[in-house]
Amino acid sequence: MKENQKIEVTGLSSGDDLRQDNHLENQVMEGHKAGFVNIVGNPNVGKSTLMNDLVGERVSIITQKAQTTRHRIMGIVNTPEYQIVFSDTPGVLKPKYKLQESMLEFSEGALTDADVLIYVTDVVEDPEKNKDFLDRVAQEKVPVLLVINKIDLVKNQEDLNQIVDKWHERLPKAEIFPTSALEHFNVQNLKNRIVSLLPVSAPFFGKDALTDKPARFFVTEIIREKLLLMYDKEIPYSTEVIVEKFDEKEGAIHIMAVIYVERDSQKGIIIGKGGEKIKKVGMEARKDIEKFFGKKIFLETFVKVEKDWRNRENKLREFGYKE
Fold it and tell me: What does the pLDDT look like over 146-192, one tens digit per residue?
């Protein structure tokens, strides 16, 4: 995170409500542009990697596992001429439990308040996957930019042309951008096109804001990323992280985080023999949290059981997945 850059914006939400806020109109140059650019698509196509590249900061966590992103996360890009409010969203999937229903709601909500919609796919995905959601994208009245990601995996130009043609048939009104977010290929051209499509508007957030999320949120995401990287099968998907203490002082932050699991057996796996595994999670998370905040971090982690939390409305509300 850049020095002195704000990571929290309070008193505002997202979408049309933000468009009612005009208190920044007199603080920007004439002809200033601003708008909401929402990134949607199926799991594991590189939405978060693209988001981070477009924002220029590590706002979303990234792993190779599906369902890494659970929330709708905003990343804000500011210049004197424009403000882009990007939204990263969970991958579109058919829900198997209430947490996934909430994740799908975040993705579907991104279709309702965009000035520009980015649909991300990759070079191996079937265009008919999650057909119903894609049909809704095809009916959008706002500009749709179709990003075909991971083109570094394509062997030759002819194969890429076939992929582009296939997607053009599926989304004929969309502008297509073959990219490799990992290699930063064609991302700047995509960003230039986004800027050209933004409406003239005052900014919706302060010009030094990076995101709408509070500092605690990024602590929980970094810890959850380590859980996804270090554990297999259902374990990381059954976990949730809550920061119970965030005590910031000059040069240091004291953090106490609780990792929730659904069963006693999962608690034992997370902790590991002699606490070895949970200690490693804490060490790896602390390194990244220190990089993010640029301060010394003192991190304590605990593991608690909250049975079947992914299917309990009250817990999903408490954990920030429902209003």
Answer: 999 999 999 899 999 999 999 999 999 999 999 999 999 999 999 99
Would you say 60 and 75 are in contact if contact means Cβ atoms under 8 Å apart? yes
> Which pLDDT score, from 0 to 100, does residue 20 have?
39
In 3D space, the residue among 78, 67, 70, 60 whose CA is nearest the CA of residue 6 turns out to be 78
Measured CA to CA, the distance from residue 162 to residue 255 in angstroms comes to 51
Q: Residues 86, 288, 207, 82: what is their CA dihedral angle, to the nearest 10 degrees? A: -40
The pLDDT of 32-43, averaged and rounded, is 96
Q: Are strands 296-305 and 82-88 parallel, antiparallel or unpaired?
A: unpaired
d(CA 99, CA 105): 10
Distance between CA atoms of residues 183 and 152, nearest Å: 8
The CATH H-level superfamily of 15-197 is P-loop containing nucleotide triphosphate hydrolases (3.40.50.300)
Looking at the chain, which residues constitute the CATH 3.30.300.20 domain(s)? 215-318
Is CATH 3.30.300.20 what the domain over 215-318 is classified as, yes or no? yes
For residue 37, list its beta bridge partners. 86, 116
Each residue's pLDDT tens digit, 61-77: 888 888 899 999 999 99
The two tokens of residue 111 are 């279709």
